[in-house]
């Protein structure tokens, strides 16, 4: 059963902001949310309903201290932002604020040197112990004062003031552009604020899918508006090398491009020149963001080895022992490693020299993850190297390798950081750890006296899906709803108090195997980045999910205004049938619960095909279901207290055909084992659909609780996909089901997969990605039963997946 969402219109892009720096300092906080207004809708079962406040302060992240006053300050176009004479940092912060005010509110603010104006920026060096980025913001009926010790604090004070321009949004939900140009009302208040952590980061993988420079700049703008300060760029991997290295041009001439499965396009990829990266570094620095480069080693080296085969591991003796691989098209874990020869280490040092000349970041990230040692184990020269160095094994060789690069970076005044695998074999002195496999690596490293950054996959990997909805685009099937992000605690439990100082902060990560376009990437990042920002900045004691959700609703409105393709999954209406589709088919009607992931907003619906509005019928505060009689077409969305829609309208049809259909996300993986992804038909396709839930270990699914009375056949909308996944040692877990024909079949079995064979549908010959539909009659069956759907295609060929399985009801007899 599918939920329909109107196709997204093209979102107008907002150009990057031209200038900016920082803001002031802080202590403690009291955020007063006004009492609840209208209560709202039914929800998905596990989610409690949240009240909709009549007024909230639209601040994300939550400041450390806030005290409300009485009244408002009207800021009108022409108002002056005063900055100290000759203070370049203050002028950048003021210019950034002015640019945001004009872009988002058509409010023209003038930046001038001096000490008087409607908005005054000041330096305050009274407490040098305050963390970088601390600030104070005071709004009185007479004007605004922003003060900080450093540039970062001035920038962040300006960001908070800009957010407060939306404080009267509920009262003026229908304000037009003329109203905006007339001015904005800012509530009287005082904020004293400071960041909880010094490392507030976002990692973007630009290898699997290349992101143009203008996209990176727009991302930097958004990071600044969320008070994040580290952009970690993953610049090399098996699938590409993305940074120009002038001494080694083949790294980008060869390593920067690949040919996708199926051969189209023939050349896919891209790279950044050093000039472009210097431009980005400067742009980010104005917004108080450090760009940390990552070049992965010793594993994930296939693109580098494709460019310079001598860097790879020998596979024997004599000529041809270092064959040139292609730049990888397989995602996942591939076997290619750097060798450990002196010439290769010198190559890496020379590359690092150019990297450090472009990126002034104190940290250089060297990866270190997923370096499976099969090639090293099989290599005579690597084994000889291990013996010559007096090392115990391949893990010790990786530790030595990372330590060697770490010492080189240290000699140049930089610090090495790597993924938590660098703990294996012994952590090199001076190395810092980015912990992605949970928090255990962070605790281990911190207890050894090493600095750590928390980036656990289960809480901060943004390529995990935001929901189980069938209109979600591709990603990893593990779900990471925004509430789970907001609940993450970056200070690991069990860490000794004297070791807590080693926790630098946290970082969200977006791996882009399944993020082929800017639209996909923004959908994955936003709005979850708002939760990341709050976890990284706000005091842990003040974190309040119920208070965050109303602010998130206003934050989403900002994204829309700025042309950011933020996901609405958390606010989108979900239709849940009491008793399920089978019960509704039997009775001809059923209670249908309309809710959303957050349990927030007033849900309004229509039954006539029109879009619901604020005056459309709504559900009561008690969450009573809607009684739906077949056939019906329900369109619904949630609205905030001011009558603004919180998500795109979703539509659900209730009829026999729809109730007999299960979309890819509604099928269950067979219990033989699961490695789940949601993927497109073609690996580089930027279309939003079709997408398929796949199980890399077993092409087998269960259609649960099928009502089979009157069913005469089945139609399966399927896809033949590229099997471009590096599974390493997990490859032996892939299940091969017996086939009757060379290309294999789709089997339909009754009950579990050991039940009677009901149909066997031969698969079309070929290897190129293709969508197709298979149809077959089914024998007469009755009652409610599971069906097993599994492909028997050879596991060394294409991967087969199901878009939707449709049971076909018998046509009613004609009179």
What distinguishing features does this structure have?
4 domains, Chitobiase, domain 2, 23% helix, 42 strands, TIM Barrel, 27% strand, alpha/beta, Immunoglobulin-like, 815 residues, 8-stranded parallel β-barrel
Helix fraction bin: 10-25%
Radius of gyration, Cα only, in angstroms? 28 Å
Count, helices: 19
CATH topology value of the largest domain = TIM Barrel
Instruction: Find the structural class using helix and strand composition.
Output: alpha/beta
Principal-axes shape call: flat
Question: In angstroms, what separates the terminal alpha carbons?
Answer: 30 Å
Our estimate of the beta-strand percent is 25-35%
CATH superfamily of the largest domain: Glycosidases
Beta strand count: 42
Low-confidence stretches: 6-48, 170-177
Task: Describe the protein.
It is a single chain. The protein starts with a strand and ends in a 6-residue tail after the last strand. It has an eight-stranded parallel β-barrel, surrounded by five helices. Strands 3-9-7-8-6-4-5 form a seven-stranded mixed sheet. Strands 32-35-41-38-39 form a five-stranded antiparallel sheet. The protein folds into four domains: 18-29 and 64-193, Chitobiase/beta-hexosaminidase domain 2-like (Chitobiase, domain 2); 199-561, Alpha-Beta Barrel (TIM Barrel); 574-655, Immunoglobulin-like, CATH 2.60.40; 661-809, Sandwich (Jelly Rolls). The chain is flat, with a radius of gyration of 28 Å. Helix 1 (88-105) packs parallel to helix 2 (151-164), helix 4 (213-225) packs parallel to helix 6 (274-286) and helix 8 (342-358) crosses helix 11. The protein has 815 residues and is α/β, with parallel strands linked by helices. It has 19 helices and 42 strands. Strand 12 and strand 13 (240-241) form a beta hairpin.
